[in-house]
Design brief:
The complex is a heterodimer. By secondary structure, chain A is mainly β. Chain A has one domain: Aromatic compound dioxygenase (Protocatechuate 3,4-Dioxygenase, subunit A). Helices cover about 0% and strands about 25% of the residues of chain A. Chain A has 1 helix and 12 strands, in the order βββββββββαβββ. The radius of gyration of chain A is 19 Å and the shape is globular. Chain B is globular, with a radius of gyration of 16 Å. Chain B is about 5% helix and about 30% strand. Chain B is mostly beta strands. Classes of the chains: A mainly beta, B mainly beta. Chains A and B meet through strand 1, strand 3, strand 9 and strand 12 of A and strand 5, strand 6 and strand 10 of B. Strand 1 of chain A pairs parallel with strand 10 (about 175) of chain B.
Chain lengths: ~230, ~180
């Protein structure tokens, strides 16, 4: 008997058709999605990590000869499922702009400096309690061309694997109190009640005195259906 | 608990997410391996050059990889699209797996597509053209309107199969809610 995963009630994820975010116009499917029952393919997932995560990958400030410019921060939290259970040994991938708001990517035309000491890519595996911890620098906001004078709020991209294909999640972590939230169509595409879940909390307790501030971001993946489907 | 919402993968992941051997669901040279290739296209028929395609499937024996080990059956593939929207994974034929009620399903590969402009991933399935009988009996395919089923069946090519993912339009691929 296969126990599936609870489906979103529509209150969590942004709709694929979100006109305020212009790139959705030609990229969102217009036909209704077809419900896919959860079989063995959907309730299993790769346990990634071997060969993909090297020691030091979780410290984005020590990947080059020198230290990157910017405000050094610790980003930490736990990976949980919808029932509050930790997800251990799970691959977390992060990527972000440098402190000036620039990615080392050929398509990024923002006239802000690249930092030779910052790639902005990190990986780690969660611990037994689902915990993770990265050291990085606070990313800068950057302009984009979605609308007049459009700026993305500072954010860190997160890629997450649970224990099931249907738990896979890619999201973005934001910083508390960002004045750019109000004009960002990517953040605001999320149902209003769920938006605070994308915002990290300032965490004084994890701050390292005279070294780095800390932000906490817990991530919750889908949980299992409470009861297995019974043959009628 | 309140679930964390999805956000777009954005345009700037190509230095972060693709791995050198990401497209290798199996090691090169694995007997029976083939390339599953395709394009990602938008509603104007233009290639999507900044998409990420991920695959997940059973092995030929119908079992799933418990731990992903490079050079062994990983079950999982990941490939970014190029300037022409092209992606490819090296894999093997999946075995048959049952559904929730223990009825057989036709062999299939699940695909997820991430891209700028996709606020959540979209999910589809690849079926194989040689499995006509199994495909005809497959309950997931049967749940799709007949005229659109062929968007889920790969086309045989010289070194494997071709499977285009059309995000929008007349030939829009069938996408699933999971």
């Amino acid at each position: 008997m296969i126990i599936g995963y609870r489906r979103d009630d529509g209150g969590t994820h942004p709709p694929l058709d979100s006109p305020g975010y212009r790139s959705t116009a030609l990229r969102h499917p217009k036909r209704p999605l077809v419900p896919l029952p959860h079989g063995p393919t959907e309730v299993s997932a790769p346990l990634l990590g071997d060969g993909l995560v090297a020691p030091g990958d979780a410290d984005l400030t020590r990947q080059h000869a020198g230290e990157p410019i910017g405000e050094r921060i610790i980003v930490h939290g736990r990976l949980l499922d919808g029932d509050g259970r930790p997800v251990p040994d799970a691959l977390i991938e992060v990527w972000q702009a440098n402190s000036a708001g620039r990615y080392p990517h050929s398509a990024d035309r923002h006239p802000a400096p690249l930092d030779p000491n910052f790639t902005g890519v990190g990986r780690c595996l969660t611990g037994a309690d689902g915990g993770y911890r990265f050291v990085t620098v606070k990313p800068g906001a950057y302009p984009w061309r979605n609308h007049d004078n459009a700026w993305r709020p500072a954010h860190i991209h997160f890629s997450l694997f649970g224990r099931a294909f249907v738990q896979r999640l890619v999201t973005q972590m934001y910083f508390p109190g960002d004045p750019l939230f109000a004009q960002d169509p990517i953040f605001n595409a999320v149902p209003e009640a769920a938006r605070p879940r994308l915002v990290s909390g300032f965490d004084l307790t994890e701050t390292v005195p005279e070294w780095a501030l800390a932000y906490r971001f817990d991530i919750v993946l889908r949980g299992r259906d409470a009861t297995p489907m019974e043959e009628p | 608990m309140n679930l964390t919402p999805s956000q777009t993968v954005g345009p700037f992941f190509s230095h972060a997410l693709p791995w050198p051997d990401g497209p290798h669901v199996v090691a090169p040279g694995t007997p029976g391996s083939f390339w599953l290739r395709g394009r990602v296209l938008d509603g104007a028929g233009e290639p999507v050059p900044d998409a990420l395609v991920e695959s997940w499937q059973a092995g030929p024996d119908g079992r799933f990889a418990e731990a992903a080990r490079p050079g062994v059956f990983r079950g999982f593939g990941r490939c970014g699209t190029d300037a022409d929207g092209r992606w490819a994974i090296l894999t093997v034929r999946p075995g048959s797996v049952p559904d929730q009620q223990d009825r057989p399903q036709a062999p299939h590969i699940d695909l997820a597509v991430f891209a700028r402009g996709l606020l959540d991933r979209v999910v589809t399935r690849v079926y194989l053209p040689e499995e006509a009988d199994a495909n005809a009996a497959d309950l997931v395919l049967a749940s799709v309107e007949p005229a659109r089923r062929d968007t889920l069946v790969a086309v045989r090519t010289g070194d494997g199969y071709h499977f285009d993912i059309t995000l929008q339009g007349d030939r829009e691929t069938v996408f699933f809610s999971v």
